[in-house]
Amino acid sequence: MPHNGRITHHIENSVSTIEFYHPKGNSLPGSLLKDLAGTMKEASESEESHVILLRSAGNGAFCAGASFDELLAISTLEEGKAFFMGFANVINAMRQSQKFIVARIHGKVVGGGVGIAASADYAFAHSSASVKLSELAVGIGPFVVGPAVGRKIGVGAFTTLSMDARSWFDSNWALQNNLYSRVFESTDKMDSAIDKLTGELASSNPQAMKELREIQWNGTGHWGPTLEQRAEISGRLVLSDFTRDFIRDFNNK
Question: With b meaning 16 or more CB within 10 Å and e meaning fewer, what string describes 13-32?
């Protein structure tokens, strides 16, 4: 597997499978975020597939969120905004998808990864898939992912998750608060359930699924400019001494 990570996409039996990988806990640097948004758009527009399965590689974390190395390298507001627009573009690509998105959450989910999980329409998770919105602890805040996470789990649960930024919330909490649709103790059983649902969706009426998804995502049309504003806030805060000191200390552990 490449040192800088990769995105793959293949279509089989009308199911588009998109997989991302990065050697540092499936974290997402700007280059991977750009590729992921583009691949999501490609899968959405493909006439060969009827449903999208989003997953990550390996047996560790599903997604460790933003790349700390890249955050530390940011030196201007423009660079900061551009980095966080990477997450905004992925979320918007998922929001605008013409096809249902099923997520396979095999391990822990942090920060921006929670936003990606929340942007899926149906999330299967392993019981080890705890979640953490760590942004406030880093000195930023879950600004870009906020609309997606809040839409999925509600204001109360989002407030709990975003304020208690140093705590892990287990998969049962995520299930009870609708971030996850189903949770499994066994990866094999989870994968069997994923195969069953994606197979059923792949054989369903594409137009009916498209229109149903549009109804379910109704009211999110303002997310384009909203997420851009949020990316600018995060881009400004990432330049703060608090955030830079936190990342340096974390990297030195």
Answer: ebbbbbbbbbeebbbbbbbb
